[in-house]
Amino acid sequence: MHAYRSHTCGALTAAQVGETVRLSGWIHRKRDHGGVLFVDLRDHYGVTQIVADSDSPALPVLEGLRVESVVTIDGVVKARGEGTVNANLATGEIEVFAKGVTVQSAAQELPMPVFGDSEYPEEIRLRNRFLDLRRDQLHANIMLRSHVIASLRRRMIDQGFTEFQTPILTASSPEGARDYLVPSRVHPGKFYALPQAPQMFKQLLMVAGFDRYFQIAPCFRDEDARADRSPGEFYQLDFEMSYVTQDDVFAAIEPVLHGVFEEFANWQGKGRTVSPLPFKRIPYRESMLKYGNDKPDLRNPIVIGDVSEFFRGSGFGRFASIVEGGDVVRAIPAPGTQEKSRKFFDDMNSWAQSEGFPGLGYATQKDGVFGGPIANNHGQEGMKAIADALGLGPNDGVFFAAGKEAQAAKLAGLARTRAAEQLDLIDKSRFEFCWIVDFPMFEYDEDAKKIDFSHNPFSMPQGELEALETKDPLDILAWQYDIVCNGIELSSGAIRNHRPEIMYKAFEIAGYTQEQVDANFSGMINAFKYGAPPHGGSAPGVDRIVMLLADQPNIREVIVFPMNQRAEDLMMQAPSPVSEKQLKELSIRLAPGVTLD
């Protein structure tokens, strides 16, 4: 028999009753029933119930061990008695009577339990991540992640993509997020950067003649954490294609994402549906109007409307003056709120103020009669015109966000989500995908008082060079697109600008000289001068895909060894000080006031 196990802890069934077996694993739980000890033995594959009574030499040893000790059990498989079968376990028909036990590793008192679903502070969980990963749900999440990545890789290969690896040590880029820098020992005073994404390399692969590239790519950005973004590093399904239009990119990646989500939609019995192919396409400006952001959750049935013109010259002076001053009024329907008290509407207003906005106006409605301060000022006839335009029912209330367009859109988008959550309108049994398309190429930077890129500077403008030379920059659209699922942006992508003369002109509009472009992006711009194919791609985030499939609210629940909010690895004590010798080798001196402690 094998030194440690003849079977795993998830393998034994009634077919093995009477056999002598050997199992190894962790003591998951112990239950003492007065001279009979029941032990749940756990390994990666499952749990098997071990029984030791006064006739078993294993009893005193098992009684003296703490949970999470690692043991090897020799025993005989027995059928469980009638009424004691556990249908929730794959091994629930049997138990193993312990004939002997070998202690492989005795556990000390635990800083946190493994058994059960109790919540523990993040610091304790991350400091003891090796224990946290033994817990059922987190262990399952990480296995799901592995299966999802395998599925993504298989589907990309089936679509004709070839996997390549791009460099981890590369050059710093002046665009994008803050870099993680790596000092060079052999080139004192110079630094590598960890790649924020393989963007330039994958485009250079297209220039080099590799037609369809992908990789499960690690990316590094020195930016703050969010619920859907891990600080430090993350992974994405990075891909690029040559000789393609936007439609070709969508046609290639949609079946991959749709297939993966369908494959795991019923994970842990959740039974969710996936929006059909092809995914819906929503222009950026339409998304900002109807949903208040560029990553809409389409499970939410509320659609925002612009009602500015209904207040122009109206009796409601406050909104009339806002509109006549060039600003806007956005309306957010609140379906079926006829039985809601005024407190519900006042609480929404208070919430808006807590988010830093002046407030959120509202009108109630019951059986077609409007109430509330805005209705009192605007009148029943005026409110009915708004209700008809929005398609409101006779018992639907409405909220109003007014002010400058960007701020009104932001408040309306947040209020749309808040109202849907409060009214339980979001269907959590669905995965709803959409593309956001037709992003503006440029925007006006109010702080710098100049035109700047709004999204990705390396995207091809719609209309190409002619658009750059003849149109108002703020009217130019780009071949840029985001893919969104349930309000989570999975990736940004674009058809790339592969022609140097168009790139120089685009950067000129944003205030860059040709010399600056050549200096900052020399690798790519030089390559484009020697024959570059039209190309485009995207990079859906693996961590976010798994977070959605695992139905987890925080991305740390699907990452094996995540950092905390302050980008610290509490388990490995990183970042950590280094020795004076190491700094000297790198020709680095710490700034005044910074110590090695």
From TrEMBL:
Function per UniProt: Aspartyl-tRNA synthetase with relaxed tRNA specificity since it is able to aspartylate not only its cognate tRNA(Asp) but also tRNA(Asn). Reaction proceeds in two steps: L-aspartate is first activated by ATP to form Asp-AMP and then transferred to the acceptor end of tRNA(Asp/Asn).
Name of the gene: aspS
PANTHER family attached to this UniProt entry: ASPARTATE--TRNA LIGASE, MITOCHONDRIAL, ASPARTYL/LYSYL-TRNA SYNTHETASE
EC nos: 6.1.1.23
NCBIfam families: aspS_bact, PRK00476.1
Residue ranges constituting the Aminoacyl-transfer RNA synthetases class-II family profile domain according to the UniProt record: 144-562
GO cellular component terms listed in the entry, alphabetical order: cytoplasm
Stored InterPro entries: Aa-tRNA-synt_II (IPR004364), aa-tRNA-synth_II (IPR006195), aa-tRNA-synth_II/BPL/LPL (IPR045864), Asp-tRNA-ligase_1 (IPR004524), Asp-tRNA-ligase_1_N (IPR047089), Asp/Asn-tRNA-synth_IIb (IPR002312), AspRS_core (IPR047090), GAD-like_sf (IPR004115)
Catalytic activity: tRNA(Asx) + L-aspartate + ATP = L-aspartyl-tRNA(Asx) + AMP + diphosphate
Binding-site list for L-aspartate: E175, R221, H455, R496
Taxonomic lineage: Bacteria, Pseudomonadati, Pseudomonadota, Alphaproteobacteria, Sphingomonadales
Main location: cytoplasm
EC top class named in words: ligase
Protein name: Aspartate--tRNA(Asp/Asn) ligase
Keywords attached to this entry: Aminoacyl-tRNA synthetase, ATP-binding, Cytoplasm, Ligase, Nucleotide-binding, Protein biosynthesis
Residues engaged in binding ATP: R221, D222, E223, E489, G541, V542, D543, R544
GO annotation terms (biological process): aspartyl-tRNA aminoacylation
Subunit structure: Homodimer.
Region entry Aspartate, spans: 199-202
Site positions for Important for tRNA non-discrimination: H33, G83
Signal peptide from the UniProt entry: none
Cellular location(s): Cytoplasm
